[in-house]
């Protein structure tokens, strides 16, 4: 973990949200520390994605608060939360498949600068170099002139992460970062991803169903169960807990 470890980056307190009779968050308290990789595990429908959606402003909790670097961000617009330093990567990479990898990156840079005018040149030298450096960080610079649609899923995931990093976040929230990646490639992709986050000094929270991935890449694990956090701790302890094995891992 980086020097920022032990600094609380994100602080969630008392989050509650219900959808009809479904309890998706029921008093969620969680701190995320600078430099850490925190995995969220739990059965389907436990409320893991709901938590990410609240933290990024896509859902407004009925009660509770989220603070980021000591600023209240609860239910702030997603764009503003992104600007403050929380980025999001989804299960399905959000790429323009007909554009090249570099064009996708340059569009991300333009969006970051809130520059959408198509008549202004996209290809600015400083930004281009910065975007290529980000592609290098995720080991994808050699693919920059290929169409995003022709690359295997593992590369698309990494490029999606590079796009998220273009927003210069301090925290990246990810929904199953390696889902859809061939099992032979999963560890390689995650290895590059985690190294890129460490180098960019970005903390992460990732929802994960693959316990080998959690064991190897998370510094801490939070276990979700029907809208509550059942347990938080280092993977070595949490993944060997009898209750966690029974309710989540299925032993
Ligand atoms: N916008 C919404 N409207 C209605 N119900 C919702 C909404 N978002 C989530 N839910 C419900 O809340 C519960 C928690 O959903 P959530 O997606 O957070 O679970 P999860 O733990 O991420 O599950 P999975 O592992 O399957 O992705 C589910 O029953 C889901 O159907």
For the largest beta-sheet, the strand count, sense and barrel status come to: 6 strands, mixed
What is the chain-wise order of helices and strands? EEEHEEHEHHHEHEHEEHH
Which regions contain 5 or more consecutive residues with pLDDT less than 50? none
CA-based shape: globular
What is this structure, in a nutshell?
This protein is α/β, with parallel strands linked by helices and 251 residues long. The chain has nine helices and ten strands.
Please describe what this structure looks like.
The protein has 251 residues and is α/β, with parallel strands linked by helices. The chain is built from 9 helices and 10 strands. The protein has helices spanning 48-55, 78-84, 101-112, 125-137, 153-166, 183-200, 211-217, 235-238, 242-249; strands at 8-19, 22-33, 37-41, 63-68, 71-72, 86-89, 171-175, 203-207, 220-225, 228-233. Strands 6-7-8-3-9-10 form a 6-stranded mixed beta sheet, with helices on both faces. Strands 2-1-4-5 form a 4-stranded antiparallel beta sheet, covered by helices on one side. A hairpin with a 2-residue loop joins strand 1 and strand 2. The longest helix is centred in the last third of the chain and has 18 residues, at 183-200. The model has no long low-confidence stretch (mean pLDDT 90). The protein binds adenosine-5'-triphosphate. Adenosine-5'-triphosphate (ATP) binds at residues 19, 22, 24, 42, 44-50, 224.
